[in-house]
């Protein structure tokens, strides 16, 4: 996929209501298991990420896009997560090779305007910095799009991910 096509998937600060600005690119990988579901079961053909903030302590919004050879992969990931999250209240990451793992408490998240081809949940780290994040995964054609919202001193506002999903849904994607 050409870089211009991949950029079409990315939300811009001006697509969001409020005073958002570009922030440093998020770090870390996209690949992990959530409640037993691998959210990147096959290597993507391309991907990108971006982050926005409204201030030094947040709120922050990160977007990750992974494009696959087939629409089946994003649809399967979202469908599997929709089912898995119904009976899951926590999960543990395997870590980054340093032996460190993280455990997250998981709860359902109501997001206004969430399309059928999406899944949302709130997760809170139960060790170390107890950051709470709102997570949304959207399957859209061959793309799997993740939105992650968090703030440093308070719980995230679900409206942030709702606005991001609405901005994505307005895009005329390739």
Describe the protein in words.
The structure is a single chain. The chain is of the alpha+beta class. The chain contains 3 helices and 10 strands, in the order αβββββαβββββα. An 8-stranded antiparallel β-sheet has the order 1-4-5-10-9-8-7-6. A two-stranded antiparallel sheet has the order 2-3. It is globular, with a radius of gyration of 15 Å.
* Number of alpha- plus pi-helical segments: 3
Strand residues, percent: 25-35%
SSE series? HEEEEEHEEEEEH
Tell me the major beta sheet. 8 strands, antiparallel
Distance between the termini: 10 Å
> Can you count the beta strands?
10
Which regions are unreliable across 5 or more consecutive residues at pLDDT < 50? none
Structure classification: alpha+beta
What shape does the CA trace take? Answer: globular
Strand order of the largest sheet: 1-4-5-10-9-8-7-6
What is the average per-residue confidence, as pLDDT, rounded to a whole number? 89
Provide the gyration radius in Å.
Answer: 15 Å
**Helical fraction:** 10-25%
Which key terms come to mind for this protein?
174 residues; alpha+beta; globular
Summarize the structure.
The protein is of the alpha+beta class and about 170 residues long. The protein is built from three helices and ten strands; from the N terminus they run H-E-E-E-E-E-H-E-E-E-E-E-H.
């Amino acid at each position: 996929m050409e870089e211009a096509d991949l950029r079409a998937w990315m939300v811009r600060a001006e697509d969001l209501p409020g005073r958002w600005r570009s922030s440093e690119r998020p770090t870390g990988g996209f690949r992990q298991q959530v409640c037993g579901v691998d959210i990147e079961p096959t290597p993507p053909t391309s991907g990108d990420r971006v982050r926005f903030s409204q201030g030094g302590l947040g709120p922050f919004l990160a977007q990750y896009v992974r494009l696959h050879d087939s629409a089946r992969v994003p649809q399967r990931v979202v469908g599997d997560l929709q089912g898995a999250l119904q009976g899951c209240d926590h999960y543990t990451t395997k870590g980054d090779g340093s032996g460190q793992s993280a455990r997250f408490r998981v709860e359902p998240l109501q997001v206004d305007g969430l399309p059928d081809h999406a899944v949302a949940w709130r997760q809170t780290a139960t060790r170390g910095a107890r950051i709470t994040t709102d997570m949304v995964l959207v399957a859209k054609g061959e793309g799997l799009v993740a939105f992650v919202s968090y703030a440093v001193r308070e719980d995230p506002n679900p409206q942030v991910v709702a606005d991001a999903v609405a901005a994505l849904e307005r895009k005329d994607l390739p």
